[in-house]
Design goal:
mainly alpha, about 220 residues
């Protein structure tokens, strides 16, 4: 009788009770792009919120520009009398308004889309606004009173307080080309716009100062 050799342990490799193996590659779970976005999600939300803020501010300046143009048109047609529109100060002020509107809306769009060039547009916006604000303050000091000039000087910088969000250390990272590639690689990762504290602070300070200035200017001048 021939000896019976033991069967090979084939059944050990095809055990029907063995737990199934995962077919998902390890690199899919927790990619570097997802980790990058997760670490900068707060700043990305703040920049989106700042973008919306600047878009609204730009729209307000567009409305102001349209109003100025309508006054000039009606004055030229003789419908209303507004001789101040021909003064050098008024001409410069009305010329700067559309520049502010374009700069604000362009910067706001760039921040919403996380474009690298939005940082340069933000710098241009701040420079033009500072020139506009100093011009208004100087004109008020020259033609009206120290009290009126102080009111204009105090209210002016408030609208640019939220721009300090761009001073965050990782703001440049969120606006970089590497971060844009990470956004493209993680379309499922959604970051909602946030309302940063600096925007709330600017709104509260503006309301408080406008009310305070209205009360002060309503007092009789000494």
């Amino acid at each position: 009788m021939l000896p019976i050799s033991p069967e090979p342990a084939a059944e050990l490799t095809s055990n029907p009770y063995r737990a199934p193996e995962s077919e998902i590659p390890g690199e899919v779970c927790g990619s570097s792009a997802e980790a990058l976005r997760l670490s900068h999600a707060r700043t990305e939300g703040n920049l989106k919120g700042l973008g919306i803020y600047l878009l609204l501010l730009g729209i307000a300046w567009v409305v102001q520009t349209q109003y100025n143009l309508s006054i000039v048109y009606l004055h030229v047609k003789g419908v209303v009398s507004a001789p101040w529109v021909a003064q050098p100060f008024s001409v410069v002020r009305m010329a700067l308004m559309p520049v502010l509107a374009i700069a604000a809306t362009t910067t706001g769009y760039g921040l919403l889309r996380r474009r690298a060039w939005s940082m340069r547009m933000a710098t241009l916006l701040v420079l033009v606004y500072v020139a506009y604000w100093l011009m208004l303050s100087g004109h008020a000091l020259w033609s009206e009173s120290v009290r009126d000039a102080a009111a204009v000087f105090a209210i002016g910088p408030i609208w640019m307080i939220p721009m300090m969000i761009l001073r965050r250390a990782d703001a440049g990272t969120v606006l970089s080309s590497e971060y844009a590639a990470a956004i493209k690689d993680t379309p499922y990762f959604k970051v909602r716009p946030r309302i940063p504290f600096l925007i709330l602070l600017a709104m509260l300070l503006d309301i408080a100062l406008v009310v305070g200035v209205a009360v002060v200017l309503g007092l009789p001048k000494s």
